[in-house]
């Protein structure tokens, strides 16, 4: 399991586990920074002295072999695996050069040292500065909240209102900074792979020229270099698509964070200050806790957590709620307070303080207390605009007309489906095609009024406008699973099986489209639209998750792989039935095993195909590819929180779970309120 994705919605919750995930990302970046620093030092040693070249190469090779990239999510693509393996491949090349001690070219400084120093300074250094700002703003935010919550409720209303506004403005600034920092952390984790490997690639290419046997070695290396360029470019293409989706999601959450709450089995969760009773003459103190409540089980979990003390979790408490009542300011010199009484702790009553009046009302609503005025914030699925597109006879007509026109007029156009049309023209064409009165009048094959890029954009827009993606929400996760694991053959078999589970109309339309895309890829020498490039374009069009999260966006690259499998195996998948003797594919499985990279052709076939790396077109023979805290809480443990209660609970609830089970049984994700 790699690094967990940092959800933007968690920036507003700012839970202890969110902070743990941030620290994991920071630790990984620090590890990368130290490694690059060491690698730069080793590179300079290579240039400095001929006599130490062999020893420096061995050290350099050792460093490369032992370093491994971490990834976000639960699996890597084949291209990312190849990029990860590239460091070990580079190490092997160095070992072969150990006996050939020649002076390295001065260009090593330009091709290796400077790019790495630039990446370390501009990228990793920028993250360090963002971390300083984030830590400083965290300290400022929670210090201001502490000071604000200590204001006496007897002060003038104008003074209190002004203080409320100041705190809210500061909190919004903190959330903005947190969003930017989380986005930067995840971006640099994805960026470092190709930003780091490309200088290494240039270094190796230049080094071979300066050896007596460099020509032969470079010849052997050249094929691997071309494969790696494809892997890097595919990873870069997917990164660009993923980054735009992540930024779009971040902006949506920034505009309305309450509509993008993550699913949770807790009815309510967030920070509350809990009053701790102390023996005279110390009085009482207020300690911040992260609280979680499940309405179905009436189970309340409270865990002390202080951001400013390094974020260390304290020992949590679990009790079962009996009742909750609002605390009036005439009975306590603090605002936003309410009392909760424990059913399994007779005589135990806790006084808690929310961050604001709105949050107190939300907690009262969730806990079933008095004055529950605000509705709970249920987890909402982001609605998709449906438009007028439907999977009906008219839809098939649109698809066939567009495909026929593309194959007649523009099958060899460079950047086919990648180059987009003018938005207004695309909308006008799609409107005419979707209108029964005008559809038959539109002549796409012979009319010069409609450019090919307008037709391809209209086709993609129609597919995106369907109420449900062509490969359905229901099977989305099942299609993703085989793309993350297994051998090339098992992936094809799994996708083959799942395609035949699609509704008949979906499968029929998918068949027509994929057959067309296969034809497009067959002309990739002219149009530069390889199978990989078509996967990047049509992955998000044919597949999309029903819920928008960072974790789902990280699976975009696997959607592309599924589309690649469909294109490369169209005849088998759509013209034959799945093999009944094979086991059904495992759906939504756990971490995938290490799998060999998927190859686009079966071994033994040596047909040439072009490789489009933006403006670079390479000839490559496929046949030469290398295979590459405790459950039983004693009654006295809540004494420090206790205050006398007028009534005692008659029955005791079951013992509470330990920390490992806080997210386990009970509760529903639909009844969810956040107060962070």
From TrEMBL:
Q: Name one GO molecular function term.
A: GTPase activator activity
- The residues covered by the Rho-GAP domain are 389-574
The cellular component terms of Gene Ontology attached to this UniProt record, alphabetical and capped at eight, are: cytosol; perinuclear region of cytoplasm; plasma membrane
InterPro entries (UniProt xref): AH/BAR_dom_sf (IPR027267), BAR_dom (IPR004148), GRAF_fam (IPR047234), PH-like_dom_sf (IPR011993), PH_domain (IPR001849), PH_GRAF (IPR047225), Rho_GTPase_activation_prot (IPR008936), RhoGAP_dom (IPR000198)
**GO biological process terms, semicolon-separated:** cytoskeleton organization; negative regulation of apoptotic process; signal transduction
Q: What is its main location?
A: membrane
A Pfam family this chain is assigned to: PH
**Coiled-coil region list:** 225-252
Summarize the protein's role: GTPase-activating protein that catalyzes the conversion of active GTP-bound Rho GTPases to their inactive GDP-bound form, thus suppressing various Rho GTPase-mediated cellular processes. Also converts Cdc42 to an inactive GDP-bound state. Essential for PTKB2 regulation of cytoskeletal organization via Rho family GTPases. Inhibits PAK2 proteolytic fragment PAK-2p34 kinase activity and changes its localization from the nucleus to the perinuclear region. Stabilizes PAK-2p34 thereby increasing stimulation of cell death.
Protein name as it appears in the record = Rho GTPase-activating protein 10
**Biological classification of the source:** Eukaryota, Metazoa, Chordata, Craniata, Vertebrata
């Amino acid at each position: 399991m790699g690094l967990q994705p940092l959800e933007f919605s968690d920036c507003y919750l700012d839970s202890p586990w969110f902070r743990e995930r941030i620290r994991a990302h920071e630790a990984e970046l620090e590890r990368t920074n130290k490694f690059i620093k060491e690698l730069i030092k080793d590179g300079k040693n290579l240039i400095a002295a001929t006599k130490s070249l062999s020893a420096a190469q061995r050290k350099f090779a050792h460093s490369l072999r032992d370093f491994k990239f971490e990834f976000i999510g639960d699996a890597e693509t084949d291209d990312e695996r190849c990029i990860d393996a590239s460091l070990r491949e580079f190490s092997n090349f160095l070992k072969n050069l150990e006996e050939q001690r020649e002076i390295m070219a001065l260009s090593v400084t330009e091709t290796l040292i400077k790019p790495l120093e630039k990446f370390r300074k501009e990228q990793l250094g920028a993250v360090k500065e963002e971390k300083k700002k984030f830590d400083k703003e965290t300290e400022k935010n929670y210090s201001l909240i502490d000071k604000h919550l200590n204001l006496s409720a007897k002060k003038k209303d104008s003074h209190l209102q002004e203080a409320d506004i100041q705190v809210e403005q500061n909190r919004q600034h903190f959330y903005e900074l947190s969003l930017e920092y989380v986005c930067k952390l995840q971006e640099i984790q994805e960026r470092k792979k190709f930003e780091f490997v490309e200088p290494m690639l240039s270094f190796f290419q230049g080094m071979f020229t300066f050896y007596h046997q460099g020509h032969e070695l470079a010849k052997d290396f050249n094929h691997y270099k071309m494969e790696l360029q494809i892997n890097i470019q595919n990873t870069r293409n997917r990164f660009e698509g993923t980054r735009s989706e992540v930024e779009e999601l971040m902006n949506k959450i920034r505009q309305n964070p309450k509509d993008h709450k993550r699913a949770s089995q807790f009815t309510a969760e967030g920070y509350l200050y809990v009053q701790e009773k102390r023996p005279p003459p110390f009085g009482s103190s207020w300690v911040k806790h992260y609280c979680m409540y499940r309405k179905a089980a009436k189970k309340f979990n409270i865990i002390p957590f202080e951001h400013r003390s390094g974020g260390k979790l304290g020992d949590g408490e679990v009790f079962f709620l009996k009742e909750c009542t609002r605390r009036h300011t005439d009975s306590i010199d603090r605002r936003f307070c309410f009392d909760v009484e424990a059913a399994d702790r007779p005589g135990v009553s806790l006084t808690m303080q929310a961050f604001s009046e709105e949050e107190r009302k939300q907690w009262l609503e969730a806990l079933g207390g008095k004055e529950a005025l605000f509705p709970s914030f249920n987890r909402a699925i982001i609605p998709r605009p449906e438009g007028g597109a439907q999977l009906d006879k008219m839809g098939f007509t649109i698809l066939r007309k567009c495909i026929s026109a593309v194959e007649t007029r523009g099958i060899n156009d460079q950047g086919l489906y990648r180059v987009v049309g003018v938005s207004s023209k695309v909308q006008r064409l799609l409107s005419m095609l979707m209108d029964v009165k005008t559809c038959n009048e539109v002549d796409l094959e012979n009319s010069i009024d409609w450019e090919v890029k307008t037709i391809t954009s209209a086709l993609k827009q129609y597919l995106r406008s369907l109420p449900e993606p062509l490969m359905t929400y229901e099977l989305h996760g099942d299609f993703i699973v085989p793309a993350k694991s297994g051998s090339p053959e098992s992936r094809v078999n799994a996708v083959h099986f799942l395609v035949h589970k699609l509704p008949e109309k979906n499968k029929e339309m998918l068949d027509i489209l994929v057959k067309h895309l296969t034809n497009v890829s067959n002309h990739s020498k002219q149009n530069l639209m390889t199978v990989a490039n078509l996967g990047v374009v049509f992955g998000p069009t044919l597949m999309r998750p029903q819920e928008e999260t960072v974790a789902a966006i990280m699976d975009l690259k696997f959607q592309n792989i599924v589309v690649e499998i469909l294109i490369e195996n169209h005849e088998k998948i759509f013209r034959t039935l799945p093999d009944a003797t094979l086991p059904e594919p495992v759906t939504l499985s756990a971490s995938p095993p290490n799998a060999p990279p998927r190859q686009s052709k079966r071994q033994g076939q040596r047909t040439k195909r072009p490789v489009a790396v933006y403006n670079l077109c390479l000839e490559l023979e496929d046949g030469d590819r290398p295979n590459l805290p405790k459950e039983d809480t004693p009654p006295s443990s809540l004494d420090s929180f206790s205050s006398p209660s007028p009534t005692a609970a008659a029955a005791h609830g079951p013992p509470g779970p330990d920390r490992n089970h806080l997210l386990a049984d009970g509760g529903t994700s639909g009844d969810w309120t956040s107060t962070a």
